[in-house]
Amino acid sequence: MSEEKKIPYKIYLDETEIPKAWYNVRADMKNKPAPLLNPATMKPMTAEELSEVFCKELVEQELDNENAYIEIPQEIRDFYKMYRPAPLVRAYCLEEKLQTPAKIYYKFEGNNTSGSHKLNSAIAQAYYAKNQGLKGVTTETGAGQWGTALSMACSYLDLDCKVYMVKVSYEQKPFRREVMRVYGASVTPSPSMETEIGKKINAEHPGTTGSLGCAISEAVEVAVKNPGYRYVLGSVLNQVLLHQSVIGLETKAALDKYNVTPDIIIGCAGGGSNLGGLISPFMGEKLRGEKDYRFIAVEPASCPSFTRGKFAYDFADTGMVCPLAKMYTLGSDFIPSANHAGGLRYHGMSPVLSQLYDDGLIEAVTAKQTDVFEAAETFARVEGILPAPESSHAIKVAIDEALKCKETGEEKTIVFGLSGTGYFDMVAYEKFHDGQMDDYIPTDEELAKYAAKLPKID
Ligand SMILES: *Cc1c(COP(=O)(O)O)cnc(C)c1O
């Protein structure tokens, strides 16, 4: 026990220990993720076709299934120094509260103004856009974290940033919107009347409050129509998981310092980027047969892509202009019930994680909304940090696993990703406190209706 206490409450690395290369887990996967398909031809997207939408260097990263390490340019590492390395915290107070023999650690990614891990990929994507001599980038944002992260990265590099924000969030989250404007981004509620697809959606669904899939279609249209602009996406894509591997590489470096080997690694999964980034280097060891770990993805019961979706090619957006991806999906026009899992409401899942899940290398579980907020409060009261509702899905399952250890007496080591802070989610916390939060779970019939509309490919 006394030896045990030698592990500090926070394991900090110093800035020279920020990774010098991202780790590309695809290099070690036997079954590679399926290629993106061109929606017009249903053939794999070539680098040339992808370059019309994405920056050149990012296209190379997107298609690279071979190189295990990709160097992080010095300029990006310099930006990372502003808020990284992120601390790995030993949750002594939570362990005490739960009276569990389990050892719990969390990697905290909320230590920057945008409040989440998304900045790790935003700066990389903005950097390559700048390097290519572009004027600016377009994107969508739902809850607002990605738009905020991208605005910060773009202002740092003096790039124009156009954000299409799902209308309901635009109206309900004015503070997020203003943070983006502080960093110089233009923020347009989606669907707008500025794009063809926006006009079409507004005509077909008057008064609609928008969706992520719809905002993506608008952002892509604007990027393709404006010379000097490209579209960037905050999750799901292979390149985003690659950038997020800094989370896992730092976590592993910190644990290695104290010879700690995790048994279970847990993360919330929306599009899969924070989970994918956290587990990548550990998954690499598992794939190479060096070590074994349990990986658990936690998704909201209201948007259960892994646990109740189909592994199939699907559209990434409502307008069906983006490439198709083979992934666990609920169908591109699935719209989850109004809930507060914010960034976990996307219909699909990263193709890399989808393949790993299909190969039985990752487990997935769902968590109900009120259980998630209960776990969030248990955590906040002892560890101090106000967690994002998304991250709290991971907290919930980490607590569950720690309580199982209490029953069995096993001293397992649990690591989870605390992907961000919840300061902009106080309306959700308010609903929880006032007993006005519900736990809607879609029925099998509802899900079957959307699944029946998946594109038929082969
Ligand atoms: C966006 C977001 C997520 C979900 O996205 P992933 O790509 O699945 O990581 C999770 N947590 C926070 C705090 C977010 O902002």
What does this structure look like?
This protein has helices at residues 47-51, 56-63, 74-80, 92-98, 119-131, 145-157, 167-172, 174-182, 196-204, 212-225, 238-257, 273-287, 305-308, 351-358, 369-383, 389-408, 426-433, 444-451; strands at residues 10-11, 21-23, 69-71, 88-90, 103-108, 136-141, 160-166, 186-190, 229-231, 264-268, 294-300, 310-315, 324-329, 363-367, 413-418. Helix 5 runs parallel beside helix 6 and helix 6 runs parallel beside helix 8 (174-182). The longest helix is centred in the middle third of the chain and has 20 residues, at 238-257. The strands form 4 sheets. The protein has a 7-stranded mixed β-sheet, with helices on both faces. It has a 4-stranded parallel β-sheet with strand order 8-7-6-9, sandwiched between helices. The protein has a two-stranded antiparallel ribbon with strand order 2-3. The mean pLDDT is 94. With 458 residues, it is an alpha/beta fold. The chain is built from 18 helices and 15 strands. Helix 12 links the parallel strand 10 and strand 11. It folds into 2 domains: 4-19 and 84-115 and 246-451, Rossmann fold, CATH 3.40.50; 21-71 and 116-231, Rossmann fold (3-Layer(aba) Sandwich), CATH 3.40.50. 41% of the residues lie in helices and 16% in strands. The structure holds pyridoxal-5'-phosphate.
Summarize the structure.
With 458 residues, this protein is of the alpha/beta class.
List unreliable stretches of 5+ residues.
none
Q: Identify the bound ligands.
A: pyridoxal-5'-phosphate
Shape: globular
β-strand percent reads 15-25%
Number of domains: 2
The name of the CATH topology of the largest domain is Rossmann fold
Task: Classify the oligomer.
Answer: single chain
- Please state the CA-atom Rg, rounded to the nearest Å: 21 Å
